[in-house]
Amino acid sequence: xxxxxxxxxxxxxxxxxxxxxxxxxxxxxxxxxxxxxxxxxxxxxxxxxxxxxxxxxxxxxxxxxxxxxxxxxxxxxxxxxxxxxxxxxxxxxxxxxxxxxxxxxxxxxxxxxxxxxxxxxxxxxxxxxxxxxxxxxxxxxxxxxxxxxxxxxxxxxxxxxxxxxxxxxxxxxxxxxxxxxxxxxxxxxxxxxxxxxxxxxxxxxxxxxxxxxxxxxxxxxxxxxxxxxxxxxxxxxxxxxxxxxxxxxxxxxxxxxxxxxxxxxxxxxxxxxxxxxxxxxxxxxxxxxxxxxxxxxxxxxxxxxxxxxxxxxxxxxxxxxxxxxxxxxxxxxxxxxxxxxxxxxxxxxxxxxxxxxxxxxxxxxxxxxxxxxxxxxxxxxxxxxxxxxxxxxxxxxxxxxxxxxxxxxxxxxxxxxxxxxxxxxxxxxxxxxxxxxxxxxxxxxxxxxxxxxxxxxxxxxxxxxxxxxxxxxxxxxxxxxxxxxxxxxxxxxxxxxxxxxxxxxxxxxxxxxxxxxxxxxxxxxxxxxxxxxxxxxxxxxxxxxxxxxxxxxxxxxxxxxxx
Length: 563
What we know:
Blueprint: H1 13-18, H2 22-29, E1 35-44, E2 47-48, E3 53-58, E4 61-66, E5 81-87, E6 92-98, E7 104-110, E8 118-125, E9 128-137, E10 140-147, E11 166-172, E12 176-186, E13 199-201, H3 203-211, E14 216-226, E15 242-245, E16 250-256, E17 264-274, E18 282-288, H4 296-301, E19 308-311, E20 314-317, E21 329-335, E22 357-362, E23 373-380, E24 388-398, E25 407-412, E26 433-439, E27 443-455, E28 469-473, E29 476-481, E30 520-521, E31 524-531, E32 534-541, E33 554-562
Parallel strand pairs: 7-13
Antiparallel strand pairs: 1-2, 1-3, 1-12, 3-4, 4-5, 5-6, 6-7, 8-9, 9-10, 10-11, 11-12, 14-24, 15-16, 16-23, 17-22, 17-24, 18-21, 18-23, 19-20, 21-30, 25-33, 26-32, 27-31, 27-33, 28-29, 28-32
């Protein structure tokens, strides 16, 4: 008899040898049984995992159930109830689930007995003669030990292949093992399959519904137009209504967010396409804090009514938080492509344009404020009468324990109200951005959540020239770095209206100050260290370029203190 040698599981040889005497007892005990129950345990690199799996076999039916379930203690999201089956009569592997909302779904995957399995040896397990078959699944080597010494068939993992016998061990890559620890006879026959299969799906949709059963999705905007039409904010605002404001380039809506974000990861998703505007534009998704006397809603109504700072001869209203005013807290900075969808008729050899641009970014660090009733806004700066269409949603994913932050919005120089007369934030040419804030108690390991992009779209402008961003706290430099993107050519297929140059490059290929057309700009997490209670000042210095003709360089900056 050929012997199967596997060095990676040699530590288990003593256990196998000791169990050899069980074989006659197992065969005898199940001789007249109506069915069997097989208990499996899992181990990885010799360490046994908690919980077991029970496989019940009666006739051609197999039912699988795991003993390791997350309890529903009322403090977190309920988990789907999932059961798996194998039907040897129909040659199908089946899965059944009841989702937390009570919906029942199922899927069936056909199998061919022994397909994809190659015999590589023989050995004993639990004292029973076993054949050992090998297969490969997604670059993983799978060895399956099965026996025909007893008259039952079953496998705990139909997805890796189904031999014509009872599977006792499955070894993945030599060190991840699922193996039988007990075989118990059953005296009564019963139907193992569920009474109802509910909504029958394919395997991919089934798994998608399982994975997303506890995801909270908050739709904010659905293909909402953002264009320049002079729109103004009405006197009275209603919950759930969508408002085009600030000349039409801001959309605003009050939405109901989850009441708690404990153990949740939070993401913003945006889908955008051009409805007529050919150019790459600055986009932003933000929420409006309303916990102070004034908010960005007041700035939209009357920009001059909110606090300002003076630089040169210009008053810059609404760009920094004060004791009585909070700036909008930016959740996502994104940039539109050149004319996605509206200009997909343009032909460029080798390019196939996408239908829309999808942006997704995590905002779990800001989750403290993403609860309850909140105003959510989206902005795309443009002067086009058709503009863009935008969809925005927030998604809250279940997660384990994580560090949570308190948040203090400090500054936001994105010129959301440009189309309503707001001046460009050009003050960094001869000045710095200075923001004062007060802490009621000392904090440890403070972080600045910092978004920065440079603008000025000509050869000498800051969009195309590297400029250091220097951050100081209370006059002491914390960091100085150059925000820059050199991967813009990756996104050529998102830019059908991008200009093509005689040297073979396209405008969308060019490197820029921390942004590319059709991408998200990632935040910088700048470590500030421990801060004492009392007043502090954050300063941002950038050597902004000088204007040329009627064109200006400027920087869109936003910062939120995390602690």
